[in-house]
Amino acid sequence: MRNSYFYILLLVLVVLDAWLLSHPNLIGQAGVFFFDYEAIETVPKAIGTVSLVVGITLLITWLLGRLSQAIAIVVSVALLAASVYYLFQSFSQYNTGIYKLTGAGFRAGAILLPGLVVLIVGQSTWDSITQKRSR
After folding, report:
1. What is the pLDDT of residue 76?
2. d(Cα 83, Cα 91) in Å, to the nearest integer?
3. Over the stretch 49-91, which tens digit does the pLDDT of each residue have?
4. Residue 33: its pLDDT value, please?
5. Do residues 68 and 135 touch, judged by C-beta distance below 8 A?
6. C-alpha to C-alpha distance for 84 and 95, rounded to whole angstroms
7. Using an 8 Å Cβ cutoff, are 21 and 14 in contact?
8. Distances in Å between the alpha carbon of 132 and those of 1, 51, 65, 127, 129?
9. Cβ contact 19:12 at 8 Å
């Protein structure tokens, strides 16, 4: 992952996701208050939360790049499958039930976070598959 445009896009998406998560509608604000979601109450807290998730994902994928190519591909594909499942689960959860009433922006932010994880792990998987190693 040496492409600087990828990291610029990732930074923009982190800020966008944090803004979306910290601005639910009235029903969503009541849910954030009732369930005590302090991590997304304000934009700076949401930026910290989203950045932490993205940072941990980047760290895991960087560590995967240090493994041999065969092991990195297997683990990356497994993580990609798990993250796609997490994205599908989040999409299903936030488009049904009471979460459907929290506002389109908040729902988009809640779905974008696993989307960022899929983006990072997918990029790492692609790099693992296409990169030639001498090990």
Report:
1. 94
2. 12
3. 999 999 999 999 999 989 888 999 999 999 999 999 999 999 9
4. 60
5. yes
6. 17
7. no
8. 14, 30, 12, 9, 8
9. no
- pTM for the model stands at 0.86
Q: What's 68's DSSP letter? A: -
For residues 76 and 131, what is the distance between their CA atoms, to the nearest angstrom?
13
108 phi-psi bin (left φ>0, alpha ψ -120 to 50, beta other): alpha
Through-space distance between the first and last CA atoms of the chain, rounded to whole angstroms:
19
Q: Do residues 131 and 69 touch, judged by C-beta distance below 8 A?
A: yes
Asked whether the beta carbons of 46 and 16 are under 8 A apart, the reply is no
pLDDT at 23 over 90: no
Half-sphere exposure of 33 (CA within 13 A, CB side): 7
Find, among 133, 113, 101, the residue nearest to 27 by Cα. 101
Q: How far is CA 88 from CA 15, 22, 43, in A?
A: 22, 22, 25
pLDDT in tens, 25-36: 776 666 666 566
